[in-house]
Amino acid sequence: MKKRIGLTVLAALLITAACRKENSSPRVPPPSWQTDQSGKYPVTMSAVVQLPADLAKHMQSSDQLGAFVGEECRGTGTVVALDTTQVFFLLIHGTAAEQSQIQFKYYSAWASRLYETKPFLSFQADGHYGTVDTPGELEFQGAH
Questions:
Q1: If phi over 0 gives left and psi between -120 and 50 gives alpha, with beta otherwise, what is residue 70?
Q2: Residue 16 and residue 67: Cα distance in Å, rounded?
Q3: For the segment 41-73, what is each residue's pLDDT rounded down to a tens digit?
Q4: What dihedral angle (degrees, nearest 10) is formed by the CA atoms of 51, 60, 29, 144?
Q5: Which residue segments constitute the domains of the chain, with CATH numbers given?
Q6: 45 and 129 in contact (C-beta within 8 Å)?
């Protein structure tokens, strides 16, 4: 009986350790994202997006959201509180002929962690993604 209890406790500890390792990620300092101000990207598109519920519940005013093409920041978000939720407004910069895929990166001050989407949104001059009534919901890789 003692052996069975010991094995059960050991199995529970191993499962707990594996879950903690899977969910743990390194803490990172707040990013300092900035968009190019040289006029290299003369046209814009707008995006109104919201975080998934599991991240939104820990949202803080010091959180950051950026839109990226590769490693280049093309826009940063401004948080706006609506009646029942908070959304990010972004002005994403590009060129008239550009059709690059945009990826979003979110820094959570609460978790000191950086979350990323896959590149999924095609840049379109004067285009829009999401609205105040129906914001685009971002899906971050590895978010829990």
A1: left
A2: 35
A3: 999 999 999 999 999 999 999 999 999 999 999
A4: -40
A5: 43-137 (2.60.40)
A6: yes
What number of residues does the chain have?
144
Instruction: Look up residue 68 and give its two tokens.
Output: 């990226």
The label of the residue with tokens 């190019």 reads: 36
CB atoms within 10 A of CB 103: 19
Task: Tell me the whole-structure pTM to 2 decimals.
Answer: 0.80
Give the helix ranges, DSSP H, for the chain: 2-23, 53-56
The rounded distance, in Å, linking the Cα atoms of 86 and 51 is: 8
Place of tokens 């978010």: 143
How far apart CA 74 and CA 71 sit, in angstroms, is: 9
- Phi, psi for residue 52 in degrees, rounded to 5: -60, 155
Query: Which helix (H) or strand (E) element contains residue 33?
Result: none
Asked if residue 142 lies in contact with residue 114, where contact means CB atoms within 8 angstroms, the answer is: no
111 touches 29 (CB < 8 A): no
Question: Residue 126: CA atoms inside 13 Å, Cβ hemisphere, count?
Answer: 1
